[in-house]
Amino acid sequence: MKKILVFDTTLRDGEQSPGVALNVHEKLEIARQLARLNVDIIEAGFPIASPGDAEAVKAVAREIKGPAICALARAKEKDIEVAWESIRYAETPIIHTFIATSDIHLKHKLRLSREQALEQAVWAVKKAKSFTPYVEFSAEDATRSSWEYLAQVYSAVIEAGATTINIPDTVGYITPLEMKELIEYLLKNVKGIEKTTISVHCHNDLGLAVANSLLAIQGGATQVECTINGIGERAGNAALEEIVMALHVRGEFFQAQTDINYQEIYRTSRLVSQLTGMLVQPNKAVVGDNAFAHESGIHQDGVLKERLTYEIMDARLIGRQEKVLVLGKHSGRHAFAKKLEELGYHLSEEELNKAFARFKQLADQKKHITEADLETIVSEEITKQEEIYQLDFVHVCSGNNILPTATVRLKAADGQTLEGVATGVGPVDAAYKAISKMLGISPDLVNFTLQSISGGTEALGEVLVRIFGDEKVYVGRGSSQDVVVASVMAYLSAINKMAQEKKLNPQKDYQES
Ligand SMILES: CC(=O)SCCNC(=O)CCNC(=O)[C@H](O)C(C)(C)COP(=O)(O)OP(=O)(O)OC[C@H]1O[C@@H](n2cnc3c(N)ncnc32)[C@H](O)[C@@H]1OP(=O)(O)O
Ligand SMILES: CC(C)C(=O)C(=O)O
């Protein structure tokens, strides 16, 4: 198997993502994690960009052991000197210098001829080489440059001392097969290439960054430049975790491997997302929330019988939890029964059928079915008994500069009508007090959640409550377009469960004194 070097540029190109700026402390924190991930090279920054960045690169170079530490520099004297000052204390310090080679960049941006750019590239590599034996040269916008001219430039910089030549697809323009052909062409036409590391640096403007990197490896590249979660300039860079896992899962096809510590992949992704503030999309390969989640019944049944039916990677390998079964409208009976078992419910066939039918009804209304929903389904549908108290009437008076007051009327199973009035800190508190006091109980409300089942201001509000009384927790649920009514129904459903086990002492008319 060919060894592929992983050059991580999260702290340099990744930081070029619009809106991202990492301070010294944050860069160090990420660099420590990249070292645990066991990347081969950390590009820590572009020291000429700002004194803060130079300081951060210096801190990374001083502290991090293991990976080589690299700093970026334009083909300019001051850039190269500042880059060297920043990385000189690293175990393996790399200066990465670059100049554009495409006619578009030469004409419009640098205003240099091809000959002048080539001369400047050679000069820059020699300058960097006077500081460190490890010099990488990038021909910016290589994939839109003349291949013949590229070969000339790379041959010249290798002669000048470059130890790595990098082929950046700066604007994400190339396609996978062209990338493979380009690497094969350079392998044939660049003098001295056999003694250098051949690197690629792919951007994701057309969503091809990972595919281009993989095809470059097939063409003969020995290093990939990439970022955690694929962050970077514009649409980002090739995602490290995707390249590494593609090589791992399809090792027999690529005949190439990295030295990445797979166990650290997920943790690194989380850390980078947190510190950069760049959220990972749920369906992102390898590290997205849904990457190992199964919602469809047929898939859930498959993975319950054998994980390999619908998973090509083991989530635990990359430091994630095992497969997640998400219950929703597409789920089937196998996954439903498994989840109930995990919650400690062992239902008969008939009970399971009843609960499953109720679950499907609810799943049609709600996107996410939670464990609390399942508990409620089981307790309401399976262990359901006659309701002892039914809500007949609730009226609340609330607003600002007013003492919230609730009047509640209940109908009891024995035919009695109970009525209570109470005040509270809000309308729900007032209604709950009215009910508890008229029933002569004082349970603790340990949990109250309110959410809308669908969108818009006319949505159904759903309330789930857990009350604690007599050393037991009772769960109740209520839904209504009026959130106060939903809250009262939820409370009453929990109290009915309590009343089925314990005799209550209702007062016919409760009036707060
Ligand atoms: C493809 C890439 O990702 S390259 C890295 C891109 N990253 C960044 O640019 C982030 C950090 N950049 C910065 O902080 C600033 O741009 C600096 C400090 C580098 C330069 O700032 P300024 O001196 O104000 O120049 P500015 O950014 O406006 O313009 C870039 C200058 O560098 C020149 N330049 C660009 N690339 C190179 C290069 N590889 N070698 C030499 N000169 C270059 C441009 O031609 C332009 O020169 P000009 O002023 O003579 O026209
Ligand atoms: C400096 C080079 C490698 C770069 O970031 C690019 O071309 O995208």
UniProtKB/TrEMBL annotation:
Mn(2+) binds at residues 13, 201, 203, 237. Keywords: Acyltransferase, Amino-acid biosynthesis, Branched-chain amino acid biosynthesis, Cytoplasm, Leucine biosynthesis, Manganese, Metal-binding, Transferase. The gene is leuA. It catalyses: 3-methyl-2-oxobutanoate + acetyl-CoA + H2O = (2S)-2-isopropylmalate + CoA + H(+). Residues 390-513 are annotated as: Regulatory domain. NCBIfam families: leuA_bact, PRK00915.1-2, PRK00915.1-3. Its cofactor is Mn(2+). Pathway: Amino-acid biosynthesis; L-leucine biosynthesis; L-leucine from 3-methyl-2-oxobutanoate: step 1/4. It comes from Thermatribacter velox. Homodimer. It comes from the Bacteria. SMART domains: LeuA_dimer. This is 2-isopropylmalate synthase. Belongs to the alpha-IPM synthase/homocitrate synthase family. LeuA type 1 subfamily. Coiled coil: none annotated. Its EC number is 2.3.3.13. The keyword Acyltransferase applies. Catalyzes the condensation of the acetyl group of acetyl-CoA with 3-methyl-2-oxobutanoate (2-ketoisovalerate) to form 3-carboxy-3-hydroxy-4-methylpentanoate (2-isopropylmalate). Residues 4-266 form the Pyruvate carboxyltransferase domain. One of its GO terms (molecular function) is 2-isopropylmalate synthase activity.
